[in-house]
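Module 6 notes. Inverse folding takes a fixed backbone as the condition and produces residue identities as the prediction. Think of it as a translation problem where the source language is geometry and the target language is the twenty amino acids. Below is one complete input and output pair. Work through it position by position during the lab.
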């Protein structure tokens, strides 16, 4: 699920409430280098106004032209682009990529109200569409599930499939939390210190005053969970790391210099964590972006979260990128702290 898709649903609902004719277009299958994943949504109005995306742009232009010229489906229908190399080039699909879509008229919007209400409560739900009847149902979903299409029914997920626990409610956490929300994480900030939790006001996040290690056990971290400790207080950071490093969480990181990380790892060994568990710790946290300010450090952490989540190797730059001049070389702030 992409947060953009919820925005698409909300806009589509609003257009229908205004009396506009609206069609939803869902990516159901891709081959090659198609730019949007299965489940991605686009909403199209009868006058050609569009929100969302299913490709790099040319497919959208063709869908708009079809609607404007009166080609308007009355029931869910399959649309395929890029069957030949010529069509792939025409529609801007890179490397001969192919794209298969479902286009459907939007009539009843009550299911959209339900999806928006339940995802606002941090629930993960699935929308099931029957292509034969056009019927839509909304049902609970679980982390680890993915988009499904069997030729007759599609099942698309909405809501936070990923979860980020931030330990500490300082400036860095305030910068990181909105970025994580935009990346479709359900964000929980934990800080038992009164001088911090009284001023936490980041919308759409959950705040906890529990002791961090207790909260980790309560949350039952899974492979779709990440933990970032940024308090600089060993009493808080180390205790949560003890539990998080033993969990299935896909990412566990802690702020601090290389020297501080070395000392931290020695402390963790005193609690009988194995070398394999300790080696899971991302510290200094974040990619090496030369970050100095809290916002820049937050970007480096968010970038590393995405890289690990997507299973790509951790490197500062893509192969072949230009290197900065020697004059620009400084120790990243995430390491200096």
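Target side of the pair, the amino acids:
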């Amino acid at each position: 699920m992409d947060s953009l898709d919820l925005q698409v649903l909300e806009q589509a609902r609003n257009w229908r409430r205004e009396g506009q004719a609206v069609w939803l277009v869902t990516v159901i299958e891709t081959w090659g280098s198609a730019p949007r994943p299965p489940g991605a949504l686009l909403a199209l109005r009868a006058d050609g106004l569009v929100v969302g995306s299913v490709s790099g742009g040319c497919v959208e232009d063709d869908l708009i032209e079809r609607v404007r010229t009166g080609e308007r489906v009355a029931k869910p229908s399959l649309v395929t682009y890029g069957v030949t190399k010529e069509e792939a080039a025409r529609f801007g699909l890179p490397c001969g990529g192919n794209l298969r879509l479902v286009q459907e008229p939007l009539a009843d919007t009550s299911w959209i109200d339900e999806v928006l209400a339940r995802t606002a409560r941090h629930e993960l739900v699935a929308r099931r569409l029957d292509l034969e009847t056009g019927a839509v149902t909304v049902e609970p979903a679980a982390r680890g599930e993915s988009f499904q299409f069997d030729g007759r029914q599609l099942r698309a997920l909405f809501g936070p499939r990923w979860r980020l626990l931030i330990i500490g409610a300082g400036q860095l956490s305030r910068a990181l939390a909105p970025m994580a929300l935009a990346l479709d994480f359900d964000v929980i900030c934990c800080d038992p210190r009164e001088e911090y939790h009284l001023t936490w006001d980041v919308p759409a996040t959950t705040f906890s005053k529990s002791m961090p290690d207790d909260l980790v056990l309560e949350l039952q971290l899974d492979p779709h969970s990440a933990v970032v400790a940024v308090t600089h207080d060993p009493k808080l950071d180390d205790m949560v790391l003890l539990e998080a490093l033993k969990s299935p969480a896909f990412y566990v990181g802690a702020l601090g210099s290389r020297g501080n990380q070395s000392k931290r790892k020695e402390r963790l060994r005193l609690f009988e964590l194995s070398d394999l568990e300790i080696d899971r710790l991302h510290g200094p946290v974040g990619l090496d972006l030369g970050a100095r300010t809290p916002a820049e450090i937050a970007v480096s952490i968010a970038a590393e979260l995405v890289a690990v989540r997507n299973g790509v190797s951790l490197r500062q730059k893509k192969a072949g990128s230009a290197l900065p001049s020697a004059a620009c070389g400084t120790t990243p702030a995430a390491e200096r702290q």
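Reference fact for the lab report: The chain is about 35% helix and 25% strand.
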